[in-house]
Sequence to fold (261 residues):
Amino acid sequence: MALVSLSLSPPCAPAASSSSNHLLTPPSLAGGSGSIRRGGPRGNAGLALTLPAGRGGREWRAPVSSFSSFLPSFFTGSKKKEEEDAKKAATLKEELLAAIAPLDRGAEATPEDKDRVEQIAQQLEEVNPTKEPLKSELLNGKWELLYTTSTSILQPQRPKFLRPYGTIYQAINTDTLRAQNMETLPYFNQVTANLVPLNSRKVAVMFDYFKIFSLIQIKAPGSGKGELEITYLDEELRVSRGDKGNLFVLKMVDPLYRVPL
Fold:
């Protein structure tokens, strides 16, 4: 069975004469020939400070920073995008759940059904609110499998009454790096595994024990391993992808469940 710091500092003004009594005072305030003009380019508020031309006839102007006006628009824009992504995710989740509802976890899916589910899943992944799932508490707990393309789980070649037709669960705990898959009717098979993080959203899965009919425990062979990437995660839905290209859609059913060690 198969996670700106912007440093703005104004340019230094040319050094004033050591005999000046107004070292930090603009010339117009000290009776000199410089000037202060209020305002600036149209639409810009602030002060434009002009000092007398120095050598080469150049003037020095104190720039008017737009950083203070940039900050509010930056955070407003970021918040607006988050709100738009959240609305889009809610709509896509409804579409995804409606698309997979009649498919018997994927066992009855036609190629067209699979394409449709894949398209919705990809769009949902683009608005994933949890960028580092392996660092999130939302991942911990017991999840119910709603849909998968994995034939090793679905066993579509078997007669329907011999397929796993009871609820299938997957539990993950990032604090202990343990995972568990649990079938119910008719076989009650289980498998537990250790997880090895590969990055903030992908783990290597190393199976350690299988349980047949929840009674007979068998040590997993050395070849029992794979990878799992969490591509969408919120408090109620998870989308994952396996190393063989299989898609998994799960819903949270028990956030307090912990995988046995």
